[in-house]
Amino acid sequence: MTASPQPVIVAVDDDPEAIERIAAELRRRYGDDYRVVCGRSTDAATAELEAMRAEGDQVALVLADVWMAERPGSDMLNRVRSLHPHAKRALLIDWGAWGHRPTADSILHAMATGRIDYYVLKPVRTGDEQFHRLIAEFLHEWSREHSAEAFELAVVSEPGAPRTHELRDLLRRSGIPHSFFGADSPEGRALCDDLDDAPGAGPVVRLRDGRVLRNPSNEEVVRAFGVDTEPVDERDFDLVIVGAGPAGLSAAVYASSEGMRTLVIERETIGGQAGASSLIRNYLGFSRGVTGAELAQRAYQQAWVFGTRFAISREVRSLQLDGAPYGVGCDAGYIATGRAVLLATGASYRRLGIPALEELTGAGVYYGASTVEGLGLGSEDAYVVGGGNSAGQAALHLSRSAARVTLLVRGGSLTEDMSQYLCRTIGATPNIEVLVETEVVGGGGEDRLEWLELRDNRTNERRRVAAAALFVLIGARPRTGWLPDAIALDSGGHVLTGSDVLAGEARERWPLERPPATYETSVPGVFAVGDTRHGAVKRVASAVGESSVAIPDVHAWLETSAQPVAR
Predict the structure, then answer these.
(1) pLDDT above 80 for 429
(2) CA 213 – CA 307 distance, rounded (Å)
(3) CA–CA gap between residue 409 and residue 426 (Å, rounded)
(4) Domain residue ranges in the chain
(5) What is the pTM of this model?
(6) What is the C-alpha to C-alpha distance for residues 237 and 336, in angstroms, rounded to an integer?
(7) Which residues pair with 89 in a beta bridge?
(8) Using an 8 Å Cβ cutoff, are 325 and 341 in contact?
(9) The CATH fold of domain 8-145
(10) CATH of the domain spanning 236-348+485-560, picked from 3.20.10.10, 3.90.1150.10, 3.30.70.100, 3.50.50.60
């Protein structure tokens, strides 16, 4: 039996009237594009889902009533997690059911333990848009990640090559759906059979419109999608923002909305560290959570609508502070000027410092929360190093594809640095193991990672384990090495701002009688927010909040300096 050509939506409810109404709504709205399977038995639905797995069907969404006679809906959806790890899973509840304490407790427990993605209110009328809003969101999220029809491009490359990892990470963080084929696979050879270059000569990118990029640079890839890498028509701005993570994007939204001529320069792609996060669940307003890439894309579009200009894949090399407007020099000779500058450069991930593993970076060893390679792990084992929220999120994301995920924590407890909701979810995920007081001290492989050496710090015992992938999330260093001496830094390289500028030796660098504004550096008119700043709270929400507070101070500075840039 061959796989269904259509992805599948499954719904189960033992109330005959409810399932009839649900089936009618799903088939009316989505029947042309999805195969809709509805029933009243959890056991029968589970058996059918097992058959779908055997047949290779793509299951996009599974809905189950919270209370059913055979078994609770959350138990069935927990089974779906292993059968179809990429399917979206939601409990069906009646209107007002969250006021029923047992139902509310069941939903909260299922969310906390990773059994469901969210809950859905059952439709009460034909064309119930409240119902369809969530269904459409689930299908949109699933299709962006797993539907071949949604892919904007195809990448053909060597699976374990570092450049392959770098390119796929760039595409994922940029929110560009893509398919990937190994250079020696039948699909890869078929895509490249009309090209002069051999598939293995470097990544080949074929766009939906037929264009082909051979071994493209990051700049060529983002430019192919119409993203500005150098706004050549203008170089003079009210505000130049360095960095397009949450802090930089937030600053761009607030500055542009207030009429400032704003430019954002980013060395890689939008989103920063947060852009690589598989799921952010504690950001205000996103009750179901949001991927870092999705959050970054929304912020980018919001800033763009307000008129922000972008220079993506441009690395800032210098900051000229001879007098306002300040000059911001980039690679390839691009120089922009700004009457104010805001530093939101974020941080770079700390390295393990093990030479054998450094050589395998991008070939089984990955720094940061980019878990795109986890999708191909299959029956292999993955390891995550770190005890913070990003490490926990990465472990949960990987658990959907890898046979087993081991979280290695140097401290004595997972709760020391990780949010409680993540600790609970990890504890309830059967294929995640947590090893505390354990470190990676070695590893290796021929062309890619094959094994790791672990040390138990309590006993000093070492052992070798087979490993297909290692994701390292052990903190980060601020990207401030390029800044001139006039910008005061702390001993860790973070930028001093506000009252910290007036403490110690940095006080001598402040030239004005007024004190620096809260997020102003030791140079008037140059501001710093987010992870690059001394004393910053390492949270997406705090980075966004700092920028919203900093922009009024930028506005005040612009009012005291020269006239605004002509619009």
Answers:
(1) yes
(2) 30
(3) 13
(4) 8-145, 151-224, 236-348+485-560, 355-474
(5) 0.78
(6) 8
(7) 62
(8) no
(9) Rossmann fold (3.40.50)
(10) 3.50.50.60
Q: Please, what is the average pLDDT of the chain? A: 87
Token pair for 274: 């947060």
For residue 239, give the nearest of 530, 510, 558 by alpha carbon: 558
Q: What is the pLDDT of residues 335-351, one digit of tens each?
A: 899 999 999 998 877 88
Is-same-fold flag (8-145; 236-348+485-560)? Answer: no
- Half-sphere exposure in the Cβ direction for 124 (13 Å, CA): 6
For residue range 492-518, list pLDDT tens digits in order.
Answer: 899 999 999 998 788 888 999 999 999
- The DSSP secondary structure of 120-174, one letter per residue, reads EEPP-STT-HHHHHHHHHHHHHHHHHH-GGG-SEEEEE-TT-HHHHHHHHHHHHT
Identify the H or E element spanning 107: helix 101-112
Estimate to the nearest angstrom the gap between the alpha carbon of 110 and the chain centroid.
Answer: 23
State yes or no: pLDDT of 369 exceeds 60.
Answer: no
Contacts for 355 with CB less than 8 Å, ≥ 6 apart? none
- 380 close to 468: Cβ distance less than 8 angstroms: yes
- Secondary structure class of 364 (helix, strand, coil): coil
Q: Are 298 and 270 in contact (CB under 8 A)?
A: no
The stretches of 225-291 forming alpha helices (DSSP H) are: 246-257, 272-275
Q: Does domain 151-224 have CATH number 3.40.30.10?
A: yes
As a whole number of angstroms, the distance between CA 4 and CA 26 comes to 18
SS3 of residue 411 by DSSP:
coil
CATH of domain 355-474: 3.50.50.60
How far apart CA 187 and CA 208 sit, in angstroms, is 15
pLDDT at 567: 37
Q: Which helix (H) or strand (E) holds 502?
A: none
In a 10 Å sphere around its CB, with 0-12 CB exposed, 13-18 middle and 19+ buried, how is residue 567 labelled?
Answer: exposed
Q: Which of 52, 75, 50 is nearest to 65 (CA)?
A: 75
Return the residue matching tokens 């493209």.
216
Region 452-467 average pLDDT: 95
